[in-house]
């Protein structure tokens, strides 16, 4: 059965999108080969596997590529039915989780990237927007778990948990580079923050997140690049 | 048990029509509520407080928003006439292309039809590159879903019908038979399916609406 489940992940260490897939594979205990891509010099394999977007992450399963992190997460959940199920059985709960996953992906995370890449008034405006989105997310989390959120462990992590860790897991590095708090445990995000802290205690998560200094370095680099090209 | 299915939609919206197409394909009865998007109803705002947009499906009082999320919900709840394969790889493929259409194609098509004159040629080129990906994806299949209409066909309703209408309204030329023979054939097949045909907004009404809202386009004669 050696060829049955050959899995490889093409990624970049600092990419939160890649982090999502990395976490998913680790939570399910799926053995895989990791291929670090140099994004300034993408491998011909990456371009072959993702000709449309030419981006990481790419999951390759028995030679077949799957791209787009949220699509990959659902593929992993449907293919490997052991370990935690990232989406529950009930169609309505699945719809709620997909809705909020898309919200975190597009409304929250993409704006966080903008915050990193801008300064001054433009940045201030986006910070306010993210704060509003986080308030909505807090309400969303409450609506998915009206009876309260079950205690997290490695057997019951879900899709949203993976998104929360990949988006906010390096919050200390984000705060250091930006000089501001994005996720506020007191005002906007008490539930989100307590969930994040619980997730960060999990063995798999501790092993998966890159060291603080490395993330700070990568974020500083991205920010400098973006600000430099903006002022040209 | 009395099932109550409400759909808040807008007659001209491809996103709203996607949901109707899926419901009709599965023979599901529902009550349709037309929303005036310039004057949204309190019900809509209650059922979709986050985005305040249509479509919203309300099933026995529980709202589901975002057209692609709704399509998957419909497929998982009413299992007759499935619109997604059981195979995880094919499902991933359909989801990938549906996102591609929503995140990349729509805005590119829009730019090519109603963008700035000086950017027109470049916009057409970009939109054509994206359409080429879909042309290649179709291969020799009758529908994106294979022998029957699937989730990706429904998501591609923008290409199958609305694109032609945008072209006529704005004068832009994108989906030519010469460049995209497979997509053109597919579009004809798609709009001939009765569950789809019954759910297309009237062409003239849509053209008038688009011209009124976005102008007559960069290449109008």
TrEMBL record, chain A:
Reaction(s) catalysed by this chain's protein: RX + glutathione = an S-substituted glutathione + a halide anion + H(+)
Coiled coil: none
Gene Ontology terms, MF aspect: glutathione transferase activity
Cellular component aspect of the GO annotation: cytosol
CDD domains linked: GST_C_Tau (cd03185), GST_N_Tau (cd03058)
Record-listed E.C. numbers: 2.5.1.18
Annotated PROSITE patterns: GST_CTER, GST_NTER
Biological process according to GO: glutathione metabolic process; toxin catabolic process
Pfam families xrefs: GST_N
Gene3D superfamilies: 1.20.1050.10, Glutaredoxin
Domain GST C-terminal span(s) in chain numbering: 90-229
Entry's family note: Belongs to the GST superfamily. Tau family.
Stated name of the protein: Glutathione S-transferase
Organism: Lithocarpus litseifolius
From TrEMBL, chain B:
GO CC aspect terms: cytoplasm
Pfam family, one: GST_C
Ranges of residues in domain GST C-terminal: 87-214
Alphabetically ordered keywords of this record: Transferase
Domain GST N-terminal: 3-82
Catalyzed reactions: RX + glutathione = an S-substituted glutathione + a halide anion + H(+)
EC number: 2.5.1.18
Stored PROSITE patterns: GST_CTER, GST_NTER
Glycoprotein found in the keyword field: no
Gene Ontology terms describing biological process: glutathione metabolic process
Entry's Gene Ontology molecular function annotations: glutathione transferase activity
Family under the similarity heading: Belongs to the GST superfamily.
Protein name: glutathione transferase
Organism the protein comes from: Lithocarpus litseifolius
